[in-house]
Amino acid sequence: AVGAVAVAGGVLHRHGDSVDVPKPKRVADRLRPGEAIAFRFPGDDDRAVGVRLKDGTLVGYSAVCTHLACAVLWREDRGSEGELYCPCHEGVFDARTGEVTAGPPPRPLPKVLLVEEIDGSVWAVATTRSGEGVKAAMCRQFGEQ
Ligand code: FES
Description:
6% of the residues lie in helices and 39% in strands. It is mainly β. A hairpin with a 5-residue loop joins β11 and β12. FE2/S2 (inorganic) cluster binds next to loops. Its cofactor is [2Fe-2S] cluster. It comes from Streptomyces crystallinus.
């Protein structure tokens, strides 16, 4: 196994974040710039969304709106990078950060850490409840930069 995909299940606590490290899940064979994929992670009932931003950055979030838990959708054609949109009460989240940019949601979207394998496949490997710092916490835990 390669890199973070080999991570075993468990829970990390770093600098106030609660970072869950469930069993990694392959969510896409490939994700091209501007593309998004809906998947379930970490459980079969947990809606999530992964996006490859136009500059190549991979981002992943819970797709459960932090307002009243409607399903959040990807809208590629909004703003410079696209956005995550909740149709229930017009909540909008920044695609790069998950921060709320419009509407009633009280908190950012929790993050789902995505990693890309050497074959181009995309894996979900961790989540955070706080919406902050999952990548930094993972890198500290596994000694990466
Ligand atoms: Fe998403 Fe209200 S449930 S904005």
